[in-house]
Amino acid sequence: MNNFLSPKFVSLGxxxxxxxxxxxxxxxxxxxxxxxxxxNEAVTDFLEGRDLFEKLEQRxxxxxxxxxxxxxxxxxxxxxxxxxxNPTTKGVFEDYNKAVALKDNVxxxxxxxxxxxxxxxxxDQQKQE
Length: 129
Fold this sequence. Notes:
Helix content: 55-70%
Structural class: mainly alpha
Shape: globular
CATH class of the domain at 40-128: Mainly Alpha
CATH superfamily of the domain at 40-128: Tetratricopeptide repeat domain
Radius of gyration: 24 Å
Number of helices: 7
Number of strands: 0
C-alpha cells in the first residue's frame, strides 16, 4: 500500500540523513593566510615575533623577525612585520621596500597585506580599501 514505509525507502532515508550529518559536520577549510617561507625554522621565529608584536612588544619582536630574515632572506612577511616594528624611519623603509619587492613570491593573502601597506604609503586610499 504505502511504498514510502518500505524497508528500501526507510534505509535510503536513514542513509541520506547520516550522509548529510557527516558532510555537514566536517571541518571547513582553514581560513588562515598561508605563510610563505622556505624554512620551517624561519616560520617558527616569525610566529614568535608576530605573537610578541600583537602583544604590543615590538622591540622584543624585532630579534625574532631578524632571525627569520637571517634564515630566509626572501621571507616577505618577516620584512613586513620588521618594518612595522622598526624603530627607525630608515629601517622602516628598507624593510618595507624589501617586502614590496618580494610580493610576487608569496601567497595571495600575504600579497594583499603587503599591497595594502604599499597603497597607504603611496597615499592611495582607494587601492588600500
